[in-house]
Amino acid sequence: MPKTLIPMVLRPSVRPLKYYDIVGDLMLSFLVNRRVTIIRQIGDSAVLMIKARHEDGSRLPIIINSKDELIRYVKLGGIDFMASVNTALAKGIDTVIIDVKGGRRVWMHDRGLELMDLMVTAVRAILEYVGLANNAVMFDGMNGFKVMALLTNAIGDAEMKAFVSMINEVVSRSMKPIDLFQSYGNDVIIGGNTMLKVKMYRVPLSLHWSTKLSAIPVARVYDFITFSADPSNVIKRLDINRKLLEPLFVKNPTDQLLDSVGRWLNNDYSLIYYMKGIIRGLIRDARDNGLEIDRENLKIR
Known about the structure:
seven-stranded antiparallel β-sheet; globular; alpha+beta
């Protein structure tokens, strides 16, 4: 029996059929030729759907290659759509996803978004250094963000695991002198579970099965407010969301990434120190802005 899920929010602000009819074309870029897991909601509970029954009675992985197919699953109760980190017939990983998740202490702290912004900025700087310049930040619909980049070639799990380890080392060394990180850094997790363990990620603009918030691209974490991810607001700002998603429509070469991972595995710490210098410069620039956050409304003031 599939696991039963209990949503925190029963209904999104926009009917799912209307919502996915509007955003479905953009979502297809991340669905085509990939295995899809769907969370269906019927009434006040939801269940995972990983295979579909075909006309001959066989049950096969779900592949959604058209908007009509997407809408068909929405009509069946599909609320949350997740795609595999590689194409259906490929091995390895061609979608880099670095999780940056904040715990309750960080989300409630008046400078929590500042800390998460700094850490996401550091992750993006590392991706750009290893040649993944076409990347984007996504709100995951719940309690964190994901830095994403697509690759021209699939990379093995071992290399990706080493890459995540390298990112953690560089971010930790870069943030270590900062008081905010010293106090709350342990409540922010940088990891690769989505990419390495789950191997499925929430498709950009998909609704989260529990919160009914959209997985939206974010220009800057510091500026993020939950209302931006409300489906009614997402469809009003679709042109902006499309623009923020554009880097994910361009795949990144893998040569520099593999070279950097190789140097990390060979204990070439000059790589770490160089990236640390780049990130510390970015942090100084960000802190010089002197921005503050209104804790009650989570808005810049």
